[in-house]
Specification:
Layout: E1 3-5, H1 23-52, H2 56-82, E2 90-93, H3 94-104, H4 106-112, E3 115-119, E4 125-129, H5 131-148, E5 155-163, E6 166-173, H6 180-183, H7 201-211, E7 214-221, E8 225-232, E9 237-239
Parallel strand pairs: 3-5
Antiparallel strand pairs: 1-7, 2-4, 4-9, 5-6, 6-8, 7-8
Helix pairs in contact: 1-2, 3-5, 5-7
Length: about 240
């Protein structure tokens, strides 16, 4: 890929969405909690449909809705807990984090007809991170990749590398790619080229990666694809 971009970790403090304090904390907590009310209604409605449906594909789609509902609830639980918890990093196998993220997005892969190719290192490796933050960051990268893929023939290639005390995770797609002039802006808050985009997914991703001291580099070529390279440095990586 002929275009590459390495964002400064310091930019993670400039995205404009990293911290909310005081009264805004209370408002955000209340808002997050209120989201659970319509989710409960969705859950009940889906359960009624599941119990009455005899169609196999319909049941599968209803199960996808239910899983997404549960995922939103998990995110809400984590968000509410984060207001009260001390920030803690724990050691997790890198492949476990990747697999959990892929499994959580399995329905999206199915609906989008995306092929997943895994090239995992044979070396066992562990990283010291906040698990939910890393999974959220990986999910954001994966969702962006899926949205760039062609209607048919879309592929995600997941590669892990363990070398010289460093673990590297590469997420590559064969999608539309990013215009050279846009590449330097993809981590800027509210920047988007999508008609209905908000422009917060990648800025939040950069913030989460920076808080876990994970370096990110992006390579992209128009009509060829995009590659996100995440590096877990020596202090946060263990290879054995």
């Amino acid at each position: 890929m002929n275009t590459s971009y390495l964002p400064s970790v310091s930019k993670a403090t400039d995205v404009g969405v990293l911290s909310i304090h005081g009264k805004n904390d209370q408002f955000l907590t209340s808002l997050i909690h209120e989201v659970r009310n319509p989710l409960a209604t969705i859950k009940l409605a889906v359960e009624v449909l599941q119990n009455s449906s005899t169609d196999h594909m319909q049941k599968r789609y209803l199960e996808m809705i239910m899983k997404s509902n549960e995922r939103i609830n998990d995110i809400i639980t984590h968000a509410l807990a984060s207001f009260h918890e001390i920030y803690v990093l724990k050691e997790y196998p890198l492949h476990q984090l990747v697999e959990e993220t892929l499994n959580a997005n399995a329905d999206r892969f199915f609906l989008s007809h995306v092929k997943i190719t895994k090239n995992y290192t044979r070396l066992a490796s562990a990283v010291l991170v906040n698990k939910e933050e890393i999974k959220t960051a990986l999910t954001n990268i994966i969702i962006n990749a899926i949205e760039s893929l062609p209607v048919s023939g879309g592929e995600l290639i997941i590669t892990t590398i363990a070398d010289d005390g460093k673990c590297t995770l590469v997420i590559e797609d064969n999608g539309a790619g990013i215009e050279k002039e846009n590449l330097k802006n993809i981590f800027r808050a509210y920047f988007t080229t999508k008609p209905k985009g908000v422009g917060l997914g990648l800025p939040v991703t950069l913030s989460l990666l920076a808080s876990n001291e994970v370096n990110v580099r992006v390579q992209s070529e128009r009509n060829v694809g995009t590659r996100f390279i995440l590096s877990f440095e020596n202090r946060h990586a263990k290879i054995y």
